[in-house]
Amino acid sequence: MKMFDPHIHMTSRTTDDYQAMSNAGITVVVEPAFWMGQPRTHVGTFEDYFLSLLGWERFRAGQFGIRHFCTLGLNPKETNNPDIADGVIALLERYLDKDGVVAVGEVGFDDETPAEAHYFARQIELAIEHDLPVLVHTPHRNKKAGTIRTLALIRESGIAQERVLIDHNTEETLPLVLDSGCWAGHSIYPHTKMDEARMVALVKQYGSERIIMNSAADWGVSDPLKVPKTAAAMRDAGIAEHEIETIVWHNPLAFFAQSARLDIAEAEAPLLIDQRHNWEGNSVLRGQVPQVTTTE
Ligand SMILES: [Zn+2]
């Protein structure tokens, strides 16, 4: 079964991860722009980050047969830095038009400050202007209240709910998100928040409509194989194959295809690997024999 991890920060992962993901059946990823683990001090570093998501990282994924798309946005934490926030919004005006950008994100609330509310709303406006869907991060603290506020802000913004993916859901927030008409993402972590067994229970209760799951793997303790591992747990629990496939493949494709930059037929076809290629003169190889796949 082909799988799609629609929220993974590959910039902070290794080529071993790409290889393992590819072996496990992951053929498409979406990498949301997020923070670095420490605050950035210049607007220009966002520009280089956006360029690397659109360039080198996309190339690197392709070298392992994985199609890479990204979402661009000013992450919630860094909306609180008045020295950079407006500068990043100005950058987004240009970068949201680039090929490979399939949504605005991740945006939303972290500490629920006034700056976060302002730039959340502003970035939804950008999404409407650029005809893109939106990927929304929900806060890890006060999650239920933060999600209620998130859904209210989305309703006021005027964006169509089916163009919004609310991420990092739990048992508490999922019914609210499904009622709203937005799509519901779930991040499966090794030790905290949502895990495989809880995800299986949610699917048994709510089914697969507008349900999406991801690894949210980044530079912290996380696992880039959580989508295939959770799919296996669903199978072991007796969830039907077509339902699993809806969650790990058809749903994320349908959501991000709304950007008109992810072609479903193209994504269904295998991406041929040709490690003889370079990106701006650079390769992922260190003297190895390049892998090349051909259509038999
Ligand atoms: Zn993330």
**Domains, number:** 1
| Measured distance between first and last alpha carbons | 20 Å
Radius of gyration: 18 Å
CATH class category = Alpha Beta
Q: Which blocks of ≥5 consecutive residues have pLDDT under 50? A: none
What class would the helix/strand composition place it in?
Answer: alpha/beta
Helix content: 40-55%
Anisotropy-based shape: globular
Q: What's the arrangement of strands in the largest beta sheet? A: 1-2-3-4-5-6-7-8
The CATH topology is given as TIM Barrel
InterPro entries: Metal_Hydrolase, TatD-like, UCP005295
Organism: Mycetohabitans endofungorum
Keywords: Hydrolase, Metal-binding
Protein name: TatD DNase family protein
Describe the fold and architecture.
Belongs to the metallo-dependent hydrolases superfamily. This is TatD DNase family protein. Pfam families: TatD_DNase. The protein has 296 residues and is α/β, with parallel strands linked by helices. The protein has one domain (3-268): Metal-dependent hydrolases (TIM Barrel, Alpha-Beta Barrel). It is 41% helix and 14% strand. Strands 1-2-3-4-5-6-7-8 form an eight-stranded parallel sheet, with helices on both faces. The longest helix has 17 residues, at 241-257. It is globular, with a radius of gyration of 18 Å. The protein starts with a strand and ends in a 28-residue tail after the last helix. The model has no long low-confidence stretch (mean pLDDT 96). Bound molecules: zinc ion (ZN). Residues 7, 9, 32, 34, 106, 216 line the site of zinc ion (ZN).
